[in-house]
């Protein structure tokens, strides 16, 4: 009815037409629900026919504005000093602004996380998790089983932004609320409480579960805002639109990035327009085990028996008895990757150059990345128990052995890094229909 698509990039040249369609649909559904409660002897809708779009869009806008306030509200944490924006910094494309491998939280801000905080840009179109994913004909080859794909967080354990938002609100090492009721009580005392009552009804705070769900819905609505979370204003977007040219080095980097015999980055991070012209998300949302080194900066890793196994645990529970998922993490989008200061799920690298060089030399020069034991042998894949190391990926550029020449030269690595910098939003900022400003 509203002509919506699951992708925020419905067309690469007309993003002004993009709407938060899921939310609008929910708003329209709200009208239908209200109609269902109307006594049968009265007309369900006084105007007759389908509900008009204008009230639905107005409700969507109100929920989005509420979600923006909640996102920046530090009072929703037990410490009173931590909001969603603390780790997802507005000024840093909703990724951490610091170089910490993991962020600190808790009631006293003294508890560390176990994984690097992912960025929030360009995740609204992430498909729901499935073990067997087939692309639509609009996006690629619909006959190929892409394997496990989708879901939110590094292990894909939740599917929607509202579910993801609940994780840090209740996590002891993040916003550290003891219960949903604690979150709701803090929201009820916040400046936006009156807006919640106006949108959801005067009794919203008397029903804990419904109020907590409303907070999640509002946060989800805000994260579906294209102007802030999916603006498509990078230099590479401008290049695909024919508005600028890449430099010679940037073009060399793109070529090495796409080349199956060199970077082969395109295997997980699609860089080309879809068959129907959608801008690339630079991830297939698939799962892969690349065997990054153990990060000693993470306090939990001081315990030699602690291992983050990704899709099979310890955070995700439903695949705990599926050894083929152990060591697999979801491939993140590379959009805005150049502004990050820590890389991979455990934040083990702190420069983009090292993150790319690891791909090139993981197997040809493992001593560069992994510890060497007293016997002189390299302890390769030291952050994954041996019984799960069969899940490690060996497709190019990992199809080499120690002592062989890497698939990528030093020049290739440098060129790819320069190309990745073209994926940072802000180059084509004039395309923004609404100026994004910090509250």
Computed Rg:
23 Å
> Which CATH architecture of the largest domain?
Orthogonal Bundle
Number of strands: 4
Q: What fraction, in percent, of the residue positions are helical? A: 25-40%
Major sheet strand order: 1-2
- The CATH homologous superfamily of the largest domain is named Cytochrome c-like domain
Assign the CATH class of the largest domain. Answer: Mainly Alpha
The CATH topology of the largest domain corresponds to Cytochrome Bc1 Complex, Chain D, domain 2
Number of helices: 12
What are the low-pLDDT stretches, counting only 5+ consecutive residues below 50? 1-43, 432-439
Structural shape:
globular
Q: Find the structural class using helix and strand composition.
A: mainly alpha
Number of domains: 2
**What are the secondary-structure elements, in order, as H or E?**
HHHEEHHHHHHHEEHH
- The pLDDT mean sits at 88
| Separation of the first and last Cα atoms | 34 Å
The largest β sheet comes out as: 2 strands, antiparallel
Strand content: under 5%
What are the key terms here?
disordered N terminus, 4 strands, two-stranded antiparallel sheet, disordered C terminus, 28% helix, single chain, 2% strand, Cytochrome Bc1 Complex, Chain D, domain 2, 439 residues, mainly alpha
Polypeptide structure, described:
The protein contains twelve helices and four strands, in the order H-H-H-E-E-H-H-H-H-H-H-H-E-E-H-H. By secondary structure, the chain is mainly α. The chain has two domains: 15-229, Cytochrome Bc1 Complex, Chain D, domain 2 (Orthogonal Bundle), CATH 1.10.760; 235-431, Cytochrome c-like domain (Cytochrome Bc1 Complex, Chain D, domain 2, Orthogonal Bundle), CATH 1.10.760.10. The strands form two sheets. It has a two-stranded antiparallel ribbon. Strands 3-4 form a two-stranded antiparallel ribbon. Strand 1 and strand 2 form a beta hairpin. Helix 1 (21-36) crosses helix 2 (53-71) and helix 4 packs across helix 7 (208-222). It is globular, with a radius of gyration of 23 Å.
